Amino acid sequence: MLLFLQVIVCIALVIAVGTWLSQSADMLAEKTGLGRTWVGTILLAGVTSLPELATGTSAIVMFNSPDLAVGGILGSCLFNLLILALLDIYNGLAPLLKRAQISHGLAASLGCGMLGIAAGGMLLGKTETNLTVGWVGIPSVILLLLYFVSARTIAQFETRRRAEVLEEEAEVFQYQHITPVQAYRRFIILSAMIVILGVWLAFLGDRVAAVTGLGQSFIGALLLATATSLPEVVSSLAAVRLNAVDLAVSNVFGSNITNLAILGFYDFVYLQGSIWANISQIHIFTAVVGMIMTSVAITGLIYHAVSRSRMYITWDGLALIILYLGGMYVIYQNLL
To answer: How crowded is residue 133: how many other Cβ atoms within 10 Å of its Cβ?
Structure first.
């Protein structure tokens, strides 16, 4: 009973802190002049992805379980894309992606490419082709390099886009009463809190799975994946409620970019050899499903820029839900 009470308290705190964190990120986007897209893709996504880094590193270092770590990262990528469908429903009659900047397609495309590199690394890891430097696989190095290239590219693109917009219309400032120092301090404190709460929630989710007997099942793994992704869900919902749709959408695509960089980092802490050669090939399927879901999201982003759809859930949102559930079913069948 005490365990479930802790879970309830932790979830309530994640919801509260995640909401404040989204508002703080919105403040930071205004104060830095970098815009919601870059702040959401790099800063907010980086913070909300840190629980995956902590739990996955623990799985590798403490339990020698690279499959659990990689499965958690790729499962989180699929769940993040599912968040777009959930946000679409939460947004009401207007399509969510219609309210978002089409420039999010840049981050989404970069994430799709990184998923392809991950799938290629896993595929080649089972062959005789030597793709390692020491014990680290070359795909891992590429993923980490692409993360930094993505951060720089998105920052440059967003700076140019904002400059063009400002030539046509004046920027509206919402947080003039907040100083830059206050914005930075608040974001750092809330970031530390959400990371601690995310790791705590993942730990509690693991204990709940063990106590209820779900620890060895697919449901147990799904429970843990949901726990580590809750900060993304909460912060994205809060961003939509603040009318900061770009912050929410960029958080989703940015979380996937960050997750794939974390996947590359896992290879450095897995000292038994290249992680790509020591994981199940079912993860290739997960990565491919992630690429398809990302492609659907990009298509929806472009299509809704000129559409007049007033459906309660858009075709792309429905497709993301079907792909997620179908992917989880296939993975579940493989684990039987």
So the answer is: 11
